Amino acid sequence: MAQSKNAVVTGGASGMGLEMARHIVERGGKALIVDMDRDALKLAASELGENALPVETDVSQESDVEAMADQAFEQLGRVDLVFANAGLQFDAPLIEATPQEFDLQYGTNVKGSWMTARAFARRWIDRGEQGRICFTGSEHSFGFQHDGAGLYTGTKHAVLGLADVMRREMPESVGISVFCPGLVNTGFYASREKAGLEEDSEALRKGEKLMARGMPASKAAGVAVEGAIMGEWLIMTHAVAREGAKERWDEIEDAFKRQAPPGSDDANYKVTELKKQIGSEDPPPR
């Protein structure tokens, strides 16, 4: 039998989150499914059975996240994995996007993911327990994939950056993964409706048609769950996403070669080394 784990899944009432929870339950574990949509939560819990426990939470609100984290340990007893998966996406050219759309996407995708990770990491450390946080990034975390998703792309760059720093700050008992899927067949394109914004029916129709051609959500979610259990740092699903990452790296490498080549005085400015030097110069506290 596959190794059973207890997990918390934000954005767990639909799409990839629901499938992540399903994989956890099918492995013999328990899943706390976290979402803002009360009706979807009820349906998901009914579908997955008694080992799926619904919790209504707005991950963009600190008090909600903290209460949810406490509830997770109370109901699950042991929390092995946390999938910081809740997210929103509103496609629009950047010059047409609105501050409200910015705040909603960054509030959920970035702040919500960070607060979720922080809440569980703190509790694992305080309790002397181990666990792993799996952030949901995206193919957009690594480079340009397609136009019209500028704000969303920014949030997924931010998620990767936060996770990369966090994995270096955490003790060995707290692991960090970033799941970076490409196009997946979910209802994710209906984010505007879920966030209470006016929906463009024609844009929604085209978006849903596009999403329907994506990888099955169960397949992508299975890769995420397996990767997190195996302790992977980066978890990939779509080989085509490499094109955007390579294009970004080629531009970075070219800029370094022309503007800041190796062998210059760059070693004098390495912050990690400078911090060590400063630490050795300062007298020990009395």
UniProtKB/TrEMBL annotation:
Basic and acidic residues bias locations: 272-286
Gene3D superfamilies from the UniProt entry: NAD(P)-binding Rossmann-like Domain
Family membership noted in the UniProt record: Belongs to the short-chain dehydrogenases/reductases (SDR) family.
Pfam short name (any one): adh_short
Lineage: Bacteria, Pseudomonadati, Pseudomonadota, Alphaproteobacteria, Hyphomonadales
Protein name: SDR family NAD(P)-dependent oxidoreductase
InterPro entries hit by this protein: NAD(P)-bd_dom_sf, SDR_fam
Keyword tags: Oxidoreductase
Coiled-coil stretches: none
Region of interest called Disordered, as start-end residue ranges on this chain: 256-286
Taxonomy, superkingdom: Bacteria
